[in-house]
Structure prediction request, 79 residues.
Amino acid sequence: MAFKDIFRDDNTFNEKTIVGFASFAIMAIFAAADIITGLFGKSLIISDTIFNSFVFITLGSFGIDGITRIFKKNNGEIS
Prediction:
């Protein structure tokens, strides 16, 4: 399966989960970089706006996916 198959309408991937995981991974990289630079006595300056944007994307992606799973009927439709 190629990368472009992720964006087709009839795929088996959950795009919301992919976006949420990618956003979470970027936040984890920021955290690791902050810890590493802190060990060397330097301050890593990350804009609060950018970090909060990743937080909102992560929570939104996983929240929408969670609500979809909770309210999904047996035939695949959302109630």
Summary: The mean pLDDT is 82. The chain has two helices and no strands. Residues 15-70 form one domain.
